[in-house]
Amino acid sequence: MKYSRLTKEQFEELHKEFINFLATQTITADEWDKLKTEKPEVAEQELDVFSDLVWEGVLSTVKYVEQISEHNIHLFVFNEDHMHVIGIKIDGPIDVTTTDGFNWLRENLMDDTVTFTQGKKDYSEDKNLDKFKLIQSGSAITKGELYEYFNKLIN
């Protein structure tokens, strides 16, 4: 398995897609029920293959992710041949995960306690796996509004 297995809730949400996937494997509903009881390891493999297919589809469309903690914001964009990150660090008691803290940051971008950094990183051999690792480490998929805002501000 390349990524991670979908959760029970995700499988329930993708129920129709999973049925279509099984159909492409020429597995009927009766055969699936039989597979689960008689060959659970094969059923597990099918769940893993489907999960990887879903992840691959999702990751191929992801352009932006962001990771926000109390005193740090990391905003990533996935370009064709590298990823670019904008980092924002706040020294002090401000917690940007709260509405008040984020509003403080918006109003105090040039404060001495706010530091901006940026960097570029080439992808490994697997661009989607690089994206997946960021998501697994707590990054959220976004539309990129925050990245684009700060990119215009500092560049």
Offer a few descriptive terms.
155 residues; alpha+beta; 2 domains; 5-stranded antiparallel sheet
Using only C-alpha atoms, the radius of gyration works out to 21 Å
Number of strands: 5
Distance between the termini: 40 Å
Main beta sheet, described?
A: 5 strands, antiparallel
Order of helices and strands: HHHHEEEHEHEH
Can you list the strand order of the major beta sheet?
4-3-2-1-5
Q: Give the amount of beta strand, in percent.
A: 15-25%
Question: Could you walk me through the main structural features you see in this protein, from its secondary elements to its overall organization?
Answer:
50% of the residues lie in helices and 21% in strands. By secondary structure, the chain is of the alpha+beta class. It folds into 2 domains: 8-61; 64-154, no CATH class. Strands 4-3-2-1-5 form a 5-stranded antiparallel sheet, with helices on both faces. Strand 2 (72-78) and strand 3 (82-90) form a beta hairpin. Helix 3 (29-38) crosses helix 4 and helix 4 crosses helix 6 (127-136). The model has no long low-confidence stretch (mean pLDDT 95).
